[in-house]
Design goal:
Elements lengths: L1 H34 L1
């Protein structure tokens, strides 16, 4: 059963990492546009 818990944790971690990886880039572009 612990394997399922580890697999679920890894899947959730990758999901959150992908969201974190993509969103900040969009925010940085918006900040750059505001500075210009």
């Amino acid at each position: 059963m612990w394997i399922l818990a580890v697999e679920a944790a890894v899947a959730l971690g990758l999901f959150l990492f992908i969201i974190w990886w993509t969103l900040p880039k969009k925010k940085d572009k918006d900040k750059d546009k505001k500075k210009d």
